[in-house]
Design goal:
By secondary structure, the protein is an alpha/beta fold. The protein has nine helices and 22 strands. Strands 6, 7, 8, 15, 16, 17, 18, 19 and 20 form a nine-stranded mixed beta sheet that branches. It has a six-stranded mixed beta sheet with strand order 10-3-2-14-22-21, with helices on both faces. Helix 1 crosses helix 8 and helix 2 crosses helix 8. Bound molecules: flavin-adenine dinucleotide.
Length: about 400
């Protein structure tokens, strides 16, 4: 029978980044098992691939700020190409939603997120696809940009493999074994693996893995989001545009392969699955572009896909050992932030697994036992997170 110090279920960005940091921290006997024939087949291969440090969820905002330096200067040999194209992110919109985001951006400057505020005229001058009539202005977040997801995912996987980790594809976990509420191994579609530590990085299937381990499922919901890509344009130079998000209409677009990538920012709860597209959401994305950015109205949609963003009920990731099943370790609930937070969260997860503590982040904010302790009423969540945010504001650090 095979064995490993740590078995990681899932070769998406969560499993890959955690494997990388486990190896960096000296735990070399790591085996990643993935049900598909390629890593990143599900959510990690379907993202919009941006670093967007400005966020209304302060936990994800902190984790993406902590991760940003990695994208700008990854370790030597991590990837052959830059991980980030630092072309910024532009937030536009009208009315209260735009005012709110502008307020968040002003506050966030104190946390190190650099931004500029533009009038409607300045915004359209910088991004001529926009229409002055539809915007009250723009907030340009200067240090954000487009990530190379392929380079990031394979950088983590190859780095982990160089350090001794193994990757087994087409290996679906079908059973997780325990003895006296302590993990002792897994059964996969291609055989058994003995291990006392099993990481649940199964994305949308995280709760299915919990059930296999005899752990309590947590309030995690996979939600589908669509993306379309329109035909390349030679009539309009779009290559250097930032991702532009309209906060009042809830859609975003950015350059992609000479054309435009756009999302209607939908969020439909679903059972875990290989997510397919729905015609109505594809039409909605095309309609947004046609109505609000008529100069780049799509003539042809060249590509479309959907992926599942798995979101915890309190909008924070779930990282830590299960409170009831020893050795069963959660690394789930990355929602719409798994790429931009992977460097920080991967390292935090590795430290928590190996040392049961980390100095990088308050572990109680992301621990799975927060759902067991009855601390999940909204007042309790808000109190906990407000305390975290105020402390952070009082001593801002770009870790
Ligand atoms: C449309 C869209 C846009 C997004 N845009 C961004 C963005 O701009 N920036 C950003 O940071 N994030 C973005 N995200 C979110 C980001 O993609 C996710 O947070 C991240 O990919 C989640 O990674 P994961 O490893 O948890 O999940 P996954 O990539 O889904 O990986 C989980 C893996 O576990 C495997 N698995 C499941 N069950 C088993 C089993 N029984 N046995 C073996 N293997 C199993 C699956 O096959 C899968 O490969 C976006 C997501 C979507 C859908």
């Amino acid at each position: 029978m095979k064995s490993a110090d740590v078995v990681i279920i899932g070769a998406g960005i969560a499993g890959a980044s955690m494997a990388y940091y486990l190896v960096q921290h000296g735990c070399k006997d790591v085996l990643i098992v993935e049900q598909e024939d390629t890593p990143g087949y599900h959510t990690s291969g379907r993202s919009a691939a941006v670093l967007s440090q400005l966020d209304v969820d302060e936990i994800f905002m902190k984790l993406s700020i902590m991760s940003a330096p990695f994208f700008y200067s990854p370790p030597d040999g991590f990837a052959d190409v830059p991980l980030i194209n630092p072309n910024g992110i532009l937030v536009v919109g009208q009315g209260a939603p735009f005012k709110f985001l502008r307020g968040v951006a002003r506050l966030s400057r104190r946390l190190g997120i650099a931004s500029q505020e533009w009038s409607p005229q300045e915004t359209v001058k910088k991004l001529p696809a926009l229409e002055e009539d539809f915007i009250d202005g723009g907030v340009f977040i200067t240090d954000d940009g487009a990530l190379d997801v392929h380079a990031l995912l394979w950088g983590f996987l190859n780095g982990a493999k160089r350090g001794g980790a193994r990757l087994e594809l087409n290996a679906k976990v079908e059973g997780i074994h325990t003895e006296g509420k302590r993990v002792c191994g897994v059964t996969t579609s291609v055989g058994e693996i003995a291990s006392e530590r099993v990481v649940n990085a199964a994305g949308a299937w995280a709760n299915s893995m919990a059930v296999l381990a005899g752990a309590r499922p947590l309030p995690l919901t996979p939600c589908r989001r669509h993306i379309i890509v329109t035909q390349p344009r030679d009539d309009f130079p779009i290559e250097d545009w930032p991702l532009t998000m309209d906060t009042s209409r809830h859609f975003y677009f950015k350059p992609e392969s000479g054309g435009v990538l756009a999302s209607p920012m939908d969020q439909e709860p679903m059972e875990p699955c290989d997510a397919h597209t729905d015609e109505m959401q594809v039409a909605k994305a095309a309609d947004f572009l046609t109505r609000f950015t008529p100069k780049i109205a799509p003539k042809t949609i060249t590509n479309q896909w959907a992926g599942l963003r798995t979101i915890a009920s309190d909008h924070a990731p779930i990282v830590g050992e299960d409170p009831e099943v020893k050795g069963f370790f959660w690394c789930a609930g990355q929602a719409g932030h798994g790429m931009e937070t992977a460097p920080a969260l991967g390292e935090i997860a590795a430290e928590l697994l190996l040392q049961a503590h980390t100095h990088r982040f308050p572990p109680e904010l992301i621990a799975p036992d927060r759902f067991h302790k009855g601390g999940l009423s909204w007042p309790a969540i808000v109190a906990r997170r407000t305390a975290f945010f105020l402390k952070w504001l009082a001593s801002p650090t770009r870790v």
